[in-house]
Amino acid sequence: MNPDHHSSLNPSSSLKSRFTKTFLRSLIKINKQRPFPYCPREIFQRCHRVKTAADKSLARAAGSRRVWSRAMLCKIRNRSLRRGCQQRPSVRRIIIGYQTTKKGYCLQKKMSDDQEVGTDQASKLRKLVPGGEAMDLCSLLDEAAHYIKCLNTQVQVMRRIADIHSS
Amino acid sequence: MSSRRSSEASKITEDEINELILKLQALLPQLNQRQASRVSVSKILKETCSYIRKLQREVDEVSERLSQLVDSVDITRVDIDSLITSIIQQ
């Protein structure tokens, strides 16, 4: 079986391979950083680092054409900035862009058509999908579908890595 | 005049929304099995929310499992390329 041929036919398998490569690289970095966390705080920090690496790798693998992946990467960058890890001006511009999207430049706030579609459920969905607050209903549904597909891939790959290493 | 145009525009959006809702239904495991002809939109949205929450919980659980493994296993010794290939081909 030729893996390249397989990935050109099936776009979701190239998402899988992109995510796998990026995530494994991050895991190796985490593995090298602190080999023996003893206190519970360090254990918790390592778990958080693994989860952040997984989300970052997934958002990168999904590509910048999706609103949810861009929003996820912004959130991760803002979080690390608030901790004072990075102080690059280019990263600061990203924060400003994300904040203005949230506040003023929301795409469509017309919810009149959405009354029949259940605004409560739609607003719950907006909170779950990254960047969902600033989307109109059509984009929200489209992004949610793609987000679910990517989450499935993420869980599948991470479980496979865990299974391989625990045996 | 403008009312007809706006109703046409809202009809197009409604069709789009229905199509997207059907696409979502196809992704949800619980609703797909029953093959019911008409599942209400709010039920689909509710299932979508709970499915996303479930997947996010699973990611948290497997992250915790991996962080414990990362501590115990030296990943650098494993052949990365064969590992990647075995994961992708599964």
Automatic annotation (TrEMBL), chain A:
Alphabetic keyword roster: Nucleus, Transcription, Transcription regulation
Compartments (UniProt record): Nucleus
SUPFAM superfamilies for the chain: HLH, helix-loop-helix DNA-binding domain
Domain IBH1-like N-terminal, chain residue ranges per copy: 13-79
InterPro entries assigned to the protein according to its UniProt record, in alphabetical order: HLH_DNA-bd_sf, IBH1-like, IBH1_N
Predominant localisation class: nucleus
Pfam families in alphabetical order: IBH1_N
Protein origin, superkingdom: Eukaryota
Name under which the protein is recorded: IBH1-like N-terminal domain-containing protein
Origin species: Hevea brasiliensis
UniProtKB/TrEMBL annotation, chain B:
Domain BHLH: 1-55
Keyword Nucleotidyltransferase listed: no
UniProt-annotated location(s): Nucleus
Predominant cellular place of this UniProt entry's protein: nucleus
Keywords: Growth regulation, Nucleus, Transcription, Transcription regulation
Keyword ATP-binding: no
Superkingdom assignment: Eukaryota
Stated name of the protein: BHLH domain-containing protein
Organism: Hevea brasiliensis (Para rubber tree)
Classification of source organism: Eukaryota, Viridiplantae, Streptophyta, Embryophyta, Tracheophyta
